[in-house]
């Protein structure tokens, strides 16, 4: 029997909101709501990947381990997803919960398998494949109300390839990503999912200021979708010549990164800092 509009709406109403995905990153009045887009932006080496893994783990971990216990689709356009690193972070978050009298049942391996069962990974090697993948995923969004987050790493992966294929026509250069953005807009509206996408900063111009590399450059349809922008930077280490060798080594292991969050509307921006450990991101 086919599903009525009222039945579909009731089922989609059950989709989990991700406002609490990471309170230390977003403004006090909350993180991304249903149908919103978070862009994780920065140059190489600014902690974007580790922050992405942190947010992913927050979603798939059980509530007893501080997670949201929701399903996630990870679209890997860079073929760079490090599953060993991801499993290591999940395992490090699970262990403290398993060692206490928490309601997590079963062995360490069963708990880990349960977390990974909430993650679907797909790969794309072109903007055309990304567009087809989003069409293919629509059925999953419709049939699985537990699927709350779509991760794309990265949305800018095919920028230079599309520019090359588009030739001298600016419209053709942006055509594929524009179509992907338009489809994403409909999926956000119809299925109330949340999208989190990384975006690599362009190389700064030789005559520009340091802010040049942080200006949005993807097509307007994508820019119109973005409701939260997380700008990642590497924090410069203080030049302290009197520091002991041991403390310098410790500082090197704990490179600090900063994240500046801006949100559409009247919400005030927020800045936070973190460093990376074997167990993942730790906020300062």
TrEMBL record:
Q: Which domain of life is it from?
A: Eukaryota
Which GO BP annotation is one of this protein's?
DNA strand invasion
> PROSITE patterns annotated for this entry?
RECA_2 (PS50162)
- Organism in which the protein naturally occurs: Pleuronectes platessa
Which GO terms of the cellular component aspect does the record hold? centrosome; Rad51B-Rad51C-Rad51D-XRCC2 complex; replication fork
- Spell out the protein name for this chain: RecA family profile 1 domain-containing protein
Q: Which molecular function terms from Gene Ontology are attached?
A: ATP binding; ATP-dependent DNA damage sensor activity; four-way junction DNA binding
The record's annotation in InterPro entries points to: P-loop_NTPase, Rad51_C, RecA_ATP-bd, XRCC2
């Amino acid at each position: 029997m086919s599903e009525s509009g009222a039945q579909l709406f009731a089922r989609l109403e059950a989709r989990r909101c991700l406002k609490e995905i990471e309170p230390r990153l977003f403004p006090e009045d909350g993180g991304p709501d249903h149908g919103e887009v978070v862009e994780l932006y920065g140059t190489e080496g600014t902690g974007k990947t580790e922050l992405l893994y942190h947010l992913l783990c927050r979603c798939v971990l059980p509530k007893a381990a501080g997670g949201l216990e929701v399903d996630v689709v990870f679209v890997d356009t860079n073929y760079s997803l490090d599953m060993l690193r991801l499993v290591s972070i999940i395992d490090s978050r699970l262990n403290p919960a398993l060692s206490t009298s928490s309601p997590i049942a079963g062995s360490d391996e069963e708990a880990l398998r349960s977390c990974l069962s909430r993650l679907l990974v797909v790969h794309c090697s072109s903007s055309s494949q990304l567009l087809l993948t989003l069409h293919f995923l629509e059925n999953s969004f419709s049939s699985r109300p537990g699927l709350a987050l779509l991760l794309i790493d990265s949305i800018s992966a095919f920028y230079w390839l599309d520019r090359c294929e588009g030739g001298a026509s600016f419209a053709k250069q942006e055509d594929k990503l524009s179509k992907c953005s338009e489809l994403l807009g409909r999926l956000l509206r119809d299925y109330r999912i949340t999208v989190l996408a990384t975006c690599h900063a362009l190389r700064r111009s030789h005559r520009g200021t340091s802010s040049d590399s942080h200006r949005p450059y993807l097509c307007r349809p994508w820019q119109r979708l973005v409701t939260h922008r997380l700008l990642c930077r590497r924090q410069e280490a203080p030049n302290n010549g009197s520091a002991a060798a041991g403390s310098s080594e410790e500082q090197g292991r704990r490179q600090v990164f900063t994240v500046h969050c801006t949100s559409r509307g009247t919400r005030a921006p927020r800045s936070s800092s973190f460093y990376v450990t074997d167990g993942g991101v730790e906020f300062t």
